[in-house]
Structure formats: structure tokens, C-alpha cells
């Protein structure tokens, strides 16, 4: 999302989910963002990443 220049403006943990896809012996976990009603486009990836990590208290 951030690499595409988009920032989730009201991100909180209730907007984050994950799922595991299993193919044979391979497992891959993917992260899913919900409630994308407030998304800003045209944001520099580093700016969006820092803001979204800060919103989730993840550091940078």
C-alpha cells in the first residue's frame, strides 16, 4: 500500500487482520487492512510508512 503512495489515515489495530494460505507444504501469512474509507493517495512511501507504523505503535 505504501509503495503505491497510499496511506490509511485512521489506522488502528481493529483495521488489521491476517490469514495463512497453505499450498502443499508451503505456508504464507498475509496481512489485510480493513476499513479503507479514509485513504490518502500521492503520499511519499516513507512518509506513509512512518505514519502508519506510528499509528500502530510499531516504531519505524
From TrEMBL:
Source organism, top-level taxon: Eukaryota
Protein name in the entry: Uncharacterized protein
Amino acid at each position: 500500500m505504501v509503495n503505491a503512495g497510499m496511506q490509511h489515515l485512521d489506522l488502528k489495530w481493529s483495521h488489521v487482520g491476517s490469514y495463512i494460505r497453505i499450498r502443499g507444504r508451503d505456508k504464507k501469512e498475509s496481512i489485510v487492512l480493513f476499513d479503507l474509507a479514509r485513504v490518502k493517495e500521492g503520499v511519499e512511501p516513507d512518509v506513509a510508512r512512518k505514519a502508519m507504523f506510528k499509528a500502530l505503535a510499531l516504531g519505524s
